[in-house]
Amino acid sequence: MTQIPRAPLFLGVAGVIPFLWSALTTLSDPLAVWSVRTLSARFTGPYVGIFFGAVMLALPLGSCGALPPAPVMARPHWGMCWRCFLRCGHLP
Question: What's in the keyword line of the UniProt record (predicted)?
């Protein structure tokens, strides 16, 4: 097994922090009260998990617009259609 470089490992582990914070403030009342008083109600509980989850889903889906269009074929086969559908969101 190879070693994971430090920067990607750190970023991957850091991506779990908002979900852990969401779970902890949902399950722990004293932590939730402290978070509401210190930060804001929007940084507590499910708000954090839902918002961060939406951002994490939007980033890879938004990259579909950055891909070049699928090559035009006279009669595409079904594999090409499904790749185009998964990549661009529509069938040719």
Answer: Membrane, Transmembrane, Transmembrane helix
